[in-house]
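Lab notebook page, bench 4
Experiment: in silico fold of construct C2
Operator: M.H.
Input chain length: 1121 residues
Purpose: comparison with the prior construct
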Amino acid sequence: MADPFSIVAGVAGLSDVCFRLVSYVRSLKQDVNATSSQLAALTDEIETLRKLCQAVQGAIPTSTAVSLRSHSTPTTGDRRTANEKQLFLWSFVDGCVKECHSLVEQLHALLVQLCSGDTGSPTSPSGTLAKLKTALAKRSVDDDLNRIRRDLGIQHGTLNTLLTLISVQDGRLAHITNLESIANVANDVHFLRRRVESQRLLGGTASPQTPTSPGSRDALAALEHLDIWFNSMPAETPLRVANQYFDIPQAVSSYYVGREDLLHELRDAFIQPPGPLHKQRQRRFVVHGIGGSGKTQFCCKFAEENRDSFWGVFYIDGSSKAQLEQTFGRIGRLAGLDKSTANELSMNAALHWLSTEQRRWLLIIDNADDPSISLETYFPKGNRGHILITTRVPGHSIHNQNVELQPYNFSSRLLSPEEATNLLLRAARRPSPWDVAWRKIAHAITETLGYLSLAICLAGAAIRTNLCDLNNFDEFYDLSWQQVQYSSYAPDDPDHKFEVCAVRTWEMLYLKLETENTQRSRDATQLLNVFAFLHRENIPRELLERALANADLETAQAEKDNQQAELESQRQTTSYLDWLSSKQRSLLMFLFRARGPTPFPDAIRWGRMHGNSRKGVLRVKQALSELTQRSLIDYNEISKSYTMHPIVHKWARMRQRLSRQSLWADTAGMVLSASILLPPLGLEADDDTYHLSLLPHVKHVQACREAISEEMEAKRALTWKARLYFGETLYAERLVMFGKFSLVYMRSGGFNEAERLLTLVVDTLVRILGQHNSRTRRVSLALSDAYWMNSKPEEAAILQVRQLSLCQKHLGPGHPDTLRVMSKLGHTRWQQGKLSDALELQRQAVQGLKRTLGDKHQDTLTAMDQLGRTVIKFYRRADIEEAHQLHRTAMEGLKALHGPDHAGALDAQESLSRTALLLGVDYAVQAEQLMAEVLQRRQSRYGKTNPMTLLAMVNMAIAKCAIQQPRKAEALMREGLLVAESMYGVSHIATAWGRCILGLTLIQQQRYDEAEAILQEVSETQKSMAARRGDFHPDRLGTLAEMARCYYLHGKMAESIETCDEAIRGLQSISKPGVEHALSAQLKMARASMVLRLEHRSSGLSQAPALAPPVFPAINFCQGD
């Protein structure tokens, strides 16, 4: 039982704790002489609650004779006297006051705890604020604080609504009628009830421990009682203020689907809760994104679902100033103006009418796509109303106000795959339930359409009207784009509705850019044309910045190359034939020179002029801003890259005639090429990462250029001009472009494509410049690297031998280029298994590079690392220690030059780890740590499918075996082999070696049958590989040694002895005459031990002497005792 005195006491206690909390928060702000948005918001909320307490005290009846009783839930048929209704309302007031008191106490305790820290002792003012900020940054603390504030808001709204209703019952609001007041309060009760229910369903009021807080349950019960009460009133009494005006941009589609979570989220955060008018704030929310993403439909759906929450729903067309004034005029006529009133006067009247209206209204400003229009001019003045804005201009997001949500970006928050699939099938009117086959086809179509709402609806309409069906939609889609390319339709052309709707939005924006005819607009259209031929995702802003900055670097390097070439020509003795040959090449160079400037966008060409790169960057940014503001491209602030929607991307490409496509495809390729630096430039770790990011763009440009060439060739074949066409001319710029693209393919593991492009470049350069030209040499060596990585050591060796001979003849044996070629040839001999030849070449190259370039030069360090890989293959203790030192020196030197992420530094660290595993079991843990770092860095920079990452996974598996973790090693190997086999095939040298290591992990787990099967298969694969030394390549010899150990552990000593014999023969064949390989000696000892065991077994002696087990050579790591 509650009486007025208990309510008075409760309200007084609540007012007191509010006063103490406000004083505490204000002292925090004064002590640290700082302001905090969260502290200020807390202060305002608690101060408002305290003032409400004073209002409650003034409304409490003075009579103490009447006791306030709690009542059970009213039913529809209840009839109460006015006194009973008062008692009913005051019983809920009592509960709200108690719950508010509890929540404010919790809030006070939470703040005190946060400011005092874990110890509970006070700290200095600055320390207090620091602790508070740190605590508020924690998600758990932030959740608790938001929960308490949210529950307080609900209780505050309920209490305010109850007090208003009590005042109406008492007749204290004389300035308005009771009927209207009751109707308004009914609206507030209904709104609060919906808000509490939705938050409870979404877990909004729940703490991490409890599903729903008691205060929310009590508030919901009170609101349910009040809602039932209002609905039980006589029929002639209006329960709500009816929605009087409802005007939206378009009807909600009958097959609208998706974004239900956003609709609920926006409703809870956007619609103004009940409260005093002076505390109201005009709420604005922005929905932006590309055309056709569903912005308008979303806002119309929101208005339709929440129609009862607004007295009026209005919309204006924001596409232009004229449309704004005209559609505002329609609202002005609702305010009482006649049709003859000028639009401007009508608009002002409408703005004034809305700004003075106390009832809730919603204004939708649709298609506010002109960034030059100041939208603030069209917002009704004052603190009332709700405004939704749809726009393609991300910059309009600044108009978001008084809503605790970030603006919705429908360019990135498109329909989910499931929502898009459902929308297409509904729009196509396919009867449900939909089977798996239909859903699969529909999903593929929506993916092609980029999950864009408008495009999906149009596709559904095309299917519904039998223009196509689900199975042949792709054919219809491609045909539609061809019609777009070769035709020009009127906006209202009914015969080509799909084509027109698919492109009209963006075509209008593009034409507007063209008609502006400013430098910025021209730059924007040109960059859009370039982006159309790049991959649509993750176009790095760095691409354009590098294309500008690289010009000066390449010019300086070209001057050095020309000076070097001049010095080389002066040293060489030339005959008359050589002189004549040089003149012929000069003529060829003139003929192969492009007749016009390199195809670049104007901003890039101007910025690449000497000294203009920084100004060029600004000009490019301004052009990109134009495209972003029109939602033709999207910018990702985190990745600093641009993205285009699939349909926008295709439209920007297909809108052009074929000849223009050819031009802009070439231009996109040239911009890409300009952003890439060829060695000796561009050797830093960041350059490697950047090159990897370009692979999708290089592939897309190449695919576009080839498709356009094929189409042009097909068209040309139909005319007599085909006889005069001799194929594409490879100008110098195109050769450079192909060379740079091959670098990207090499970094990314696309060795076949790199080989194809480099072969084309080398053949052309040999014809024009000759084999001994420095440019030809560099590209030829790059081609030999592609052969090497493509498991073609014979082709690589032939090319390198030829280059070494030319360098020795024209440059001399001590020239750095001669020594570089010698080192590469030695590395190829290592891959071929010709270890003695490799060792001789590499030692000579390292010594020469040290003399000419010094110990710290990158080429010297790289040659030392490659020498170490050859030295270790001789497996003597001194060889292993020498290799260990070589790798350590290379690793430390390359890290000092380029940092720990440099590709060469990681290669050297990987080799260092492998040699440490062969030094002894004491080095195993250190080796595993070194290898773990290599694997982590390669995965983070190159991704899991890069060939160098796959190599690191194999070596990491070896290290895991060395520290007795074979199961983890097996998991690594199986994961890596899935990728390697799909990318390079089972017969590639690296794949075969990886399977050998997989067998090694199985041996360590005593799964001998599986290991034998794998090792036998690998041995046969390695035996049948091309370019091997008969049957005995070092890789196969290592496999045979591991197989012999597996046979022995499996109890098959006869097979082990036979395998040892084969391995020993192979080792003898690759060693110099009279020199026994270390592995051969160890295998002979193991063989002898097994033979002795077999003899004792066959002799039948009952007590055979104890024999030591055979010791097999450590091929990959030391096994220990």
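Observations: The chain has 42 helices and nine strands. The mean pLDDT is 79.
Next step: discuss at group meeting.
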